[in-house]
Amino acid sequence: MLFHYHIWTPHVEKTEQFYKDQGFRISQRIGRYEGEFQEFSPPLTWDDFRDRNILFRIIEARKGTINITFGYGKRTMFDHIGFLVAPKELEQVCENAMKLSWKVQKNERRTFIETPYSFKIELQTNTDVIDSLNSRIRIEDLTLEIQKAGLESDLLSLFGSYKHRVHSEIGNVVTVKKVVMNNLASSPVVDPNGVKIIHKEAPSL
Question: Are the C-beta atoms of 80 and 120 separated by less than 8 Å?
Fold first, then answer.
């Protein structure tokens, strides 16, 4: 299940406020302050630390089965998308990645696959990364702008099906261009990093 994307951005506070306005909750904020990584998670608000020189490594926004993260970067840059998979599926996807000659990096918490399209794929087996596995609130479709063709066929080889919900358009940059979600406060909207977000009615139970 596609559940996640991560972006580096110079617009950290504006990006957080944007997703809060769309009904997301901020679950954590971790940043480097005075040489150490520290937590600035809610109930702290930006008024509590805005005047400090904090370089945020990750801010996490959650809603239903969706988890969006972003951190400070000098320029907007897309980093990776994430899929929630079963442990058995994880092993098969990693095997498929190696057949594609894609580098696989595993650790106890998550697995990253480096693609030849200038972004990474996160594989996650821990359901605590989302608020509700049974929620109808989810990413219905995600369109990436990339610089070369072949992504859809490679994702089919990686996952063995079209359930990945990811599509691509050829362009000059590598970025998240459009995301279709449900249960949004307004639609269509564009986040501070140029990601267009469109509402789709949630499927009935």
Answer: yes
Output the CA angle 60-108-118, nearest 5 degrees.
Answer: 60
- 3-state SS assignment for residue 149: coil
Rg over alpha carbons for the chain, rounded to the nearest Å, is 17
pLDDT along the chain (205 residues), means of 10: 96 97 96 96 96 95 97 96 94 95 91 97 95 91 96 94 85 96 86 94 60
Q: What structural domains does the chain harbor?
A: 2-199 (3.10.180.10)
From CA 172, how far away is CA 24, in angstroms rounded? 30
- pTM for this one? 0.92
Residues in the chain: 205
